[in-house]
Each structure stands twice: as C-alpha cells, then as structure tokens.
C-alpha cells in the first residue's frame, strides 16, 4: 500500500469517494473548505455528483433527497454550519435514512472563531436537532483514522439506516500526515425494500417520511429506533487504551486533544507518574465498558478537552461516579499544550 | 360499455383529509391524470411540503418523500441529481415555497434544476389555521392580520411566477387557476407541459395554481371560487410568464443533467 | 531518533508552507512518522504565516510545534517571536537579508545566510525558502541531499516540473553558504 501525504480534509473526501459515496452537497466554511474543493475536483470523475448548495440547510436536504433514493450521500461543514444542518439531520434520523455528516469543528458559540475546537460534543452526542434520536459519532485522532472512520461511518449508516457523524476539528482537517487507503469493498446493503427511486410498477409505492400524527404510532417508531440504538451501544463502541493497565491517573481525551494528552502521558511516565490515556473513538455510543476497564486501577480521571468540559458528564455516568473526574481544557480555538496537561497530571498524580 | 371517466390510477383510492370545497383535490387529480397519460408513475418521485398537502404522499401512488418545511426543492434536487432518469416533482403551498423556502425556491430555479414544481397559491396558511401567507392580498383578513394585511406593517405579496421568470434557469413558468372547467383544462395542459419539459431536459418548470381555502377564508365553497375570480386573478394575472422552447442550457453541453 | 520539531515562519507568499511540505515529503521518503500543520485563516492572505513539521520514528503526538528544535525564520516578526521558544540546543536558520538577529540566547545556534539576496543574484526568484532548507540539511543532517531532492520532486506539481532544477540549485547554494 502506498503511503501518501494528505490533509485531513482531503483524506476525508478521498475516503468517502472510495467508500462509494455518490454525491456530496456542501456550502463553503472554514476550516473544512478543502473537503468540498476536493469533492468538486474528484467526484465527477468517479461518476458521482458534487453540488454547492445555496445554504447548509439546502445541502443537508439534498442529502436527504439523495439518500431517500438509496444512494450513499454526504455533507460536511464546520460548527456554525452544522447548527444550520441540524433540522435536516433530525428529519434524516426520523426518516430512517443513512447519511454521513462531517463536522470539522471550530470555536463557538455564534460565529465564534476558525481555530480548532471540540465544543460541539454536546451537539453531536446529545442533540443534533429536535426529537428523540441519536447519531453514531466517530472521533478520529489522525488523518489515517479519518479515512478509517469515513469507511466505517458509511457502512454503519447503511447497516442501521441512520445518520453517522465524523466529529473532527480544524487541526485534524488542516494537518497533513501519511495515510494509506485500504482496499475498500463497500458492503452492498439491499435498499430495495425502502428506497424511493421509482417503483417501475413492480412494487407498492415507497414513502420516506418522518410524520406520524398518531402519538402511539410515533412512539412505536421511536421505540423501534431505540431498540436499534441498544444493539449499537452493545456492539459499536470503540476506544484506545494507552498505558492504562497500571495507571493511577487516566486522562480522557478524544480527537486532536488526545494526541496532546498522549504526549503529556509519555512525559508523565518519564517523571515516574503512572498516567494512562483513555481515548474514545466513538463518542456515541460512549465506550462505557472500555472506560471502566481503563479506569479499573485508577485513583482519578482527568478529562482534557478543547471545550469547557462537555465530555465530563459522560465519563462520570460511565464509571457511575465511582472515582473523581477532574477537568482541564482550553476553548475558543486555543489548543492545550502537552506542558499544560502535564502540569495538571503532576497536580493530581504527584499528590501521593 | 365504454368507460369515459374514471379515477386516475396514480391517485390512490382513499378519502383525503382536505376540507370540503378545497381545490387541492382538483390539482391532485389533474396531476395524476398527467402522470397516467405519460405512463410515468413507476419512474416518478414526488416530494411533499409542510402545509395542507403534507400528507399527499398517502394519495399519490408514485414513490414519495416528505420534506421539511420549505426544503422540498432541495430534497428534489438531491433526488434528481442522483437519479436523472426519474421524473421529480414537488407539490408546495405558498408558505412553504414563498416564505420559509424562498432560498430553496430561487436557487432550484436559477440552477435550472430539471424538475417540476406545482405551487398552490391560496393566499393563506391553511394547515395552521389561517395565518398570513407571503401571498396574502393587501387588506385580506387572516388570523395574524386581523385588521387586514397592511403593506406598511406586513409588506406586499410575493408574485412568484413574475419573480422566477427573471431567472435564466427557469424554462417555464405559468400561472393557472382551478376555478372553472376551462381554467382547470388549462391547468392540466400546463402541468403536462411542465412534465414534458422535464422529459426533454429543458430546465426548471413551475406551475402556479390559484386555489381556494373556503375554511380559512370563512366562505362557502362557491363564494370562495368567486373570491378567487374577483380578487385573486386581478392581482395574480393568469398566463405564461416564461417559456423557453429550446431549454435553458446550451445544447452543446448536452441537454439533460 | 526522537521527534524533531520544526517551525517555519514568515510572511504569506514567502513559500513557508511549501518549504514545510518539502520537509514533510522528505520524512515520507525516509519512511518516517511525520506531521505537517499550517496556520490557517486570514493570515494566509498576506499576513504572517507559519507551519509546524514533526519528523520522528515514533507516532507523532501533538502536531503543533511550540518549542522547535529547528526554527526557520523568514521575517523579523517571526524571528523575534519564535527565537524565544526554541528548545535549548536548538538551531535557528534565518534570512540575514531581512532579519537582524537580536537575541540574548546563548543556548541555541544561529545560522543566518542572506538567502533572499542569494536567490536574487542567482536568478532564483522566490527561492529564498529553499536556499534556507539547503542550509538546514547541511547543519543538521536531518535529511540527506538525496532525500531532499526526492522530496522536492514530490512536492513540485507535474505542471511546474521545469522548476525542479532551480530548486536543486537553491538547495546546493544553501548547503554551500
């Protein structure tokens, strides 16, 4: 396999095309712009569709339309644009449609800034739109993982008929790293049982819809979806455990921040502090089993985030508040440094 | 005995939820007659709006998608771009198309998206109980213009065919009405032409249908028809606003997208 | 080899990101782990510009270079700002045509060459960045000349392949400066 150097944003796009994505609908926003530009250049060569929409809202609804016909569809944006897409994401979830949405996060709220951030954790994992629903949320920490996540996201979106999100950030989107593209054979899921692509007089008409005026019918549709979510919670969690076996202090960090945290963990080990890293690769479902394994010998945990601490609640719930969970974060586009994180580790881990 | 009149096959034989005297039923019927006559039901995907026709997916026998409020043109774009061989139409009311979905409407037209938009203009929000629509006439009383629509307070109505006919991507824009048999015949012809345009890859086609809302206008069905004739048609003149016979794209770039 | 952290900084348009890319591709050619991270945003359009490159035998942790082992500075503000951050024992390469090296630090090595002037005199317009890279490989042995040439061949787009010999010439000028 050839190692190539690629920007995270471009690797996301290339991986999507290789995963059988047949259409991309987007709207320009920093820092995900290279993704759309790459799609514009490459998509038509692979027989797919690239269209720059008039808004994020239109883009996500174009995704809904394409996905309704059984085609692998995707959109990407950055934080303020994802807020606009949230309406469409809710409709996609309510219509049981597969789709992939990429968020290359920047600082918020409002127009915020354009530097890397992880402050859309809550939005992605709790409430990307109105109503009872979830997305599968992947949090890659390298350009290679971005590729792997995209492939997986398309697969799982099809498998479970639900939206999947890649939650990246400006740092991952902009950086270049060596990357390899594995041979991808997109699993062909049979969509003929529901896709609205013309019945050819060979079947009943298909309706793609999220409207249920009878509460008991709506409730049933949601309960069915939540049965699916239970299966996903059991089977789809993923995390990296690094030096956690004997760790007194377990750092919890995802995405770009986990790289910073890993550097700090290595420095702490050099100082004789038993630090380890728990890195969730899926944010929903949250890797409950894995964090309990990682924290089994820990005295405390430290969540390190590029936000004001949006993952802390999930950590506390996952370990049933059995151990203290501390927090260190920078926000607004400021990237925490390994030295800063090491200082926090020293404060917590050097105490005994 | 020869059958001279029957229900279109693409119009599912169940009671609709529309109010007595509502003209949605007429438009549904002539749309389905066109689909039947062209034999395209199996290759058609329709997109419903949010509004009174939100549940039209239960009435049309082709594949149907229910869009978010105002987003039907974007959804239809997603369908058409990935399935250029299918016939794609949206069926939208005035709030959906000319208020919340204005951006989607303008851009689907300016892209020359090769779809058909059926636009029901009845000058009111029906589903939510009779509020001001972007097409509500000056002076018209609605729940949210209880003293009549004042242009100073609430602005002027949007004239959709006039507006969209300014865009290069619009191949065809015609305003029709369903208040009388001759007008209904014209309306059907317009819808047929719009679908033929799509078949030939001519670009964006819209048929605006002046319709009634007896319930929210507070009028008996026949009085509602009379209001359409006396008040709406003078404000929204019927006719062809744009018809680009050769289509909106240069032939060298290869007609249908 | 531990991780070598390199920071390149200057004005937008001086080829900061391009020089960083060459270093990144050199890492790729030598089968190293590496990362390349640009500053992005409005500063890309003519303001200050910088670029972090990490080269290592181990997977790269944070790709953001805060305390560089190697600093390549191409304008005064960048030199002034980042010379303070260079790791003790680190090396600073700068264009002495544009930069007056004013620093109290004695724990780092300074390598100033008039790269801008050299580029102009040798008909290598815009080659100042590459001349500095030549100086870097001469003084650090981070990459061989052969690797550097391969890196350049990878980065220069095929449509501009005629520029490759000039880049080679610039590297050699820097090595001999």
Describe the structure.
The complex is a heterotrimer of chains A (about 350), B (about 260) and C (about 180). Helices cover about 40% and strands about 20% of the residues of chain A. Chain A has helices at about 10-20, 35-40, 55-70, 80-95, 120-125, 145-160, 170-175, 215-235, 255-270, 290-295, 310-320, 340-350, and strands at about 5, 25, 50, 75, 100-105, 135-140, 165-170, 175-180, 205-210, 240, 250, 275-280, 280-285, 300-305, 325-330. In chain A, the strands form 3 sheets. In chain A, strands 3-2-4-5-7-6-13 form a 7-stranded mixed sheet, sandwiched between helices. In chain A, helix 3 runs parallel beside helix 4. In chain A, about 60% of the residues are buried. The model of chain A has no long low-confidence stretch (mean pLDDT about 95). With about 260 residues, chain B is an alpha/beta fold. In chain B, strands 2-1-3-4-6-5-7 form a 7-stranded mixed sheet, sandwiched between helices. By secondary structure, chain C is of the alpha/beta class. In chain C, strands 2-3-1-4-5-6 form a 6-stranded mixed sheet, sandwiched between helices. In chain C, strand 4 (about 70-75), helix 2 (about 75-80) and strand 5 form a beta-alpha-beta unit. In chain C, helix 1 crosses helix 5. The two termini of chain C are about 25 Å apart. Chains in contact: A-B, A-C. The interface between A and B is large, with 40 and 36 residues.
